[in-house]
Every structure is written in C-alpha cells, then in structure tokens.
Amino acid sequence: MRSLAGSTVHGAASPASATILLVDDEEKILKALGRALRDAGHAVVETTSPRDAQRLLAERAFDLLVVDNVMPQMSGPEVAEQLAIARPAMKVMYMSGYPDHPVFSQGGVNRETVFLQKPFTPNVLTQKV
Predict the structure, then answer these.
(1) Whether pTM exceeds 0.85
(2) Tens digits of per-residue pLDDT, 36-63?
C-alpha cells in the first residue's frame, strides 16, 4: 500500500484487471468498495477528494472512474466532466444513495448502464466493473 496525500493506492494490476480511480467523500464506503475491487483483482486508487482525483489523474492513467454523485466539493458528473478533458477514453461509473438528487436532472448520468444505487453489495459492484 502506498499513500498519496489523501489517497491510497492498493493492489497490483493483473492482465485481466482494471486500474480504477475510486472517489467517495465517505471514508468507510471508500474503504469497503476499494477492498471489494482489490479482492476482485483490480488495482485501486482511493480518494475522498474530487480535487485530489484531478491531481491523481494527471499522474497516471486509469481504466475506470467510480465516483459518488453527491459530494460536498463537486458532484460526480462534474468530476467526470473535468477528468474527461484529460482522459476522454476513461469509462465512468456513478453511484449514489440519493436517486432523486438534482444532479440527475442536470444530465450526464445514465442510471441504466453506469449507475449503482447505494446501498449495494460488493458482488454487484464487481459484476458491473
């Protein structure tokens, strides 16, 4: 494990795994999801800060961004939009415990294909990845 100012890097990527940037402002959820993804064989970088996510993306490439939709500093779609400028091919998976939050009416989130409604099981997450 390697710590990066508010973020943590775990696991080593295998040929069949993805390198995932995981962003959630709730530390307990972040750690549980990171553990589930690592157990499934993925390399995971965790951060509670959308701003830190931007810095991390400048330092390395990721296959997938898994991001909470509702966070204090900026919404998940805002994070994804900003990160897409630097990495347009990166896939995005949104998650939220607030399905009626106004962020959904702003566009950019397709609940059918790239959205996980919290709470969900680790198995559901790893199947979607």
Answers:
(1) no
(2) 999 999 999 999 999 999 899 888 899 9
| Percent of the chain residues topping a pLDDT of 70 | 76
Query: Please, what is the Cα angle at 107 between 79 and 103, to 5 degrees?
Result: 65
List of residues 6+ apart from 118 with CB closer than 8 A: 29, 95, 96, 97
Alpha helices by DSSP H, 60-107: 76-86
The C-alpha angle with vertex 86 and arms to 1 and 44, in degrees rounded to 5, equals 20
Phi-psi region of 5 (alpha: psi -120 to 50; beta: other; left: phi over 0): left
122 contacts 94 by C-beta, under 8 angstroms: no
